From TrEMBL:
It comes from Methylophilus medardicus. InterPro entries: NDUFAF7 (IPR003788), NDUFAF7_sf (IPR038375), SAM-dependent_MTases_sf (IPR029063). Keywords: Methyltransferase, Transferase. The keyword Methyltransferase applies. It holds the Pfam family Methyltransf_28. One of its GO terms (molecular function) is protein-arginine omega-N symmetric methyltransferase activity. This is Class I SAM-dependent methyltransferase. PANTHER family: PROTEIN ARGININE METHYLTRANSFERASE NDUFAF7, MITOCHONDRIAL. GO terms for biological process: methylation. The keyword Methyltransferase applies. It comes from the Bacteria.
Length: 389
C-alpha cells in the first residue's frame, strides 16, 4: 500500500482555486458560528461536497477522468458497462420497467448502458437520472445528446427527487461512499462524536455523543482506546426510502466497502475516510474544502439489514470481479482480436484493473436488493458472498 501524501506534497492551487476554497471555508465558518461553535463531521462533509456553487460536486471543476480527481469503472473500460448491461437487461426484461440511475457523473455510464441495452433488445421504457448537482446534470445532458440517437435520448428524464413509485432497476455506482458520514471515537469507555470548530482555521473537536442511535449497530467488542470509525444513517435512509418506493425490481449498489465484521475490525482503528485531489489519495478532509472529494467505505451489512426492514430481499452480494465475470466480461474481451494490439492491449490492461484483487476487483463489491423478483440474477450465479454479511 502506498504511503499517503502530506498536504505539502499535494499539487498547489492556482489563484481561482484558492479563492473558491477560501469562500467555501468562510461559509463553513459561518455555519459553525451559527450552530454555537461546533458542527458534526457529517454536516461538514455535506457542506464541503454539496453546497450550491461551492461544494465539490456542485462546483464547476472537472471531477472525473484523467483530467479530474479520480476515474470510475465506466471510464476505465466500456466492457464494464457492457457486462453490467446484461444484469440490468435481465431485470428490465423481467419487469418491463424503467431504470433509475443515482448520481450519473459524466453521463458515460448512462449513455453506454442505453446503447448496449438497445443492442440486446432490453431497453427500459424510461431512463431516469437523479442528480443533485446542476453542473453535473448539464454535463450529463451534453454527453447524452452527443452520444445517443434521438430516439434513445428521448427516453432519458432527469429528476429532482425520488419518484413516488418505481418498477425496474436502480443503478448506483459509487454513490453510497459520497453520502456524509458521522465520525465517532472511543475514549475512556464511551463513544464521542468528532466534529469541527473554528480557531484561526478549521480544527477537530470531539463532544459527548448526543444521538445514541448512531452506535446502536456497533458490534459488542472491546474497542481500543482512540478507535475512530464512521457511521452513515443517511445511506441507510436512502436505501429505506427506495425500498418503499420500489414496487418490483432490483437495486444494484456498486461501491468499495466491507461487511460489518471487517468494517469495524479493531485493527481498522482510524476508520476508512479517504480524500481524492487530482489523483492523489490522502486522509485529511480539512484540506482544500470544496475542491477535493471526501469519501468513506460502505458498511454493506448495514445496507442489507436496512433493506430487509424496508421489505426488500438481499438477492446477491459479491466482489466486483466475480460480478463482472458472471456477466461475461471475459467473453466480451475475447471479441477483440488480439492481433489488433493497439486496441487489444489497453483493453486487457483496463479489464485487469477492474478484476485484479490489487486494484478494484476485491475492494469493490456489488449488492443486489430485490422486491417481487424470482429470477436468479445473472451477476451472482457464482461466488455469492451473502453469508459474509
Amino acid at each position: 500500500m502506498m504511503a499517503q501524501p502530506k498536504s505539502s506534497q499535494l499539487p498547489a492551487l492556482d489563484a481561482n482555486a484558492q479563492l473558491h476554497s477560501d469562500q467555501m471555508r468562510k461559509h463553513i465558518q459561518q455555519q459553525i458560528n451559527a450552530k454555537g461553535g461546533w458542527i458534526s463531521f457529517a454536516d461538514y462533509m455535506q457542506m464541503a461536497l454539496y453546497t450550491p456553487h461551492l461544494g465539490y460536486y456542485s462546483g464547476d471543476a472537472n471531477k472525473f477522468g484523467q483530467a479530474g480527481d479520480f476515474v470510475t469503472a465506466p471510464e476505465i473500460s466500456p466492457l464494464f458497462t457492457q457486462a453490467l448491461a446484461k444484469q440490468v437487461g435481465q431485470v428490465v426484461q423481467a419487469t418491463a420497467g424503467d431504470v433509475l440511475e443515482l448520481g450519473a457523473g459524466t453521463g458515460q455510464l448512462a449513455s453506454d448502458l442505453l446503447l448496449h441495452l438497445a443492442d440486446i433488445g432490453q431497453l427500459p421504457q424510461r431512463y431516469f437520472i437523479l442528480e443533485v448537482s446542476a453542473n453535473l446534470r448539464q454535463r450529463q445532458q451534453q454527453t447524452l445528446q452527443k452520444r445517443l440517437p434521438a430516439a434513445l435520448y428521448a427516453r432519458v428524464q432527469w429528476l429532482d427527487a425520488l419518484p413516488a413509485a418505481l418498477i425496474g432497476v436502480v443503478v448506483a455506482n459509487e454513490v453510497l461512499d459520497a453520502i456524509p458520514v458521522h465520525l465517532i471515537e472511543w475514549q475512556a469507555g464511551q463513544w464521542l462524536e468528532r466534529g469541527l470548530s473554528f480557531d484561526s482555521g478549521l480544527v477537530w473537536q470531539s463532544q459527548p455523543l448526543q444521538n445514541a442511535a448512531l452506535v446502536t449497530g456497533m458490534p459488542p467488542v472491546q474497542w481500543p482506546e482512540g478507535y475512530t470509525t464512521e457511521v452513515c444513517p443517511a445511506a441507510q435512509g436512502l436505501v429505506a426510502s427506495l425500498g418503499h418506493k420500489l414496487q418490483q425490481g432490483m437495486m444494484l449498489w456498486i461501491d468499495y466497502g466491507f461487511p460489518a465484521h471487517e468494517y469495524y475490525h479493531p485493527q481498522r482503528n482510524q476508520g476508512t475516510l479517504m480524500c481524492h485531489f487530482q489523483h492523489y489519495a490522502h486522509d485529511d478532509p480539512l484540506i482544500n474544502p470544496g475542491l477535493q472529494d471526501i469519501t468513506a467505505h460502505v458498511n454493506f451489512t448495514a445496507i442489507a439489514e436496512t433493506a430487509l426492514t424496508a421489505g426488500l430481499s438481499c438477492a446477491g452480494y459479491t466482489t466486483q470481479a466475480q460480478f463482472l465475470i458472471n456477466c461475461g466480461i471475459l467473453q466480451l474481451l475475447e471479441t477483440v482480436m488480439p492481433d489488433d494490439s493497439a486496441r487489444y492491449l489497453p483493453m486487457v490492461a483496463a479489464v485487469q484493473k477492474l478484476l485484479s484483487p490489487a486494484e478494484m476487483g476485491e475492494l469493490f463489491k456489488v449488492l443486489a436488493l430485490t422486491k417481487g423478483l424470482s429470477v436468479p440474477l445473472l451477476g451472482f450465479v457464482s461466488g455469492d458472498k451473502r453469508h459474509q454479511l
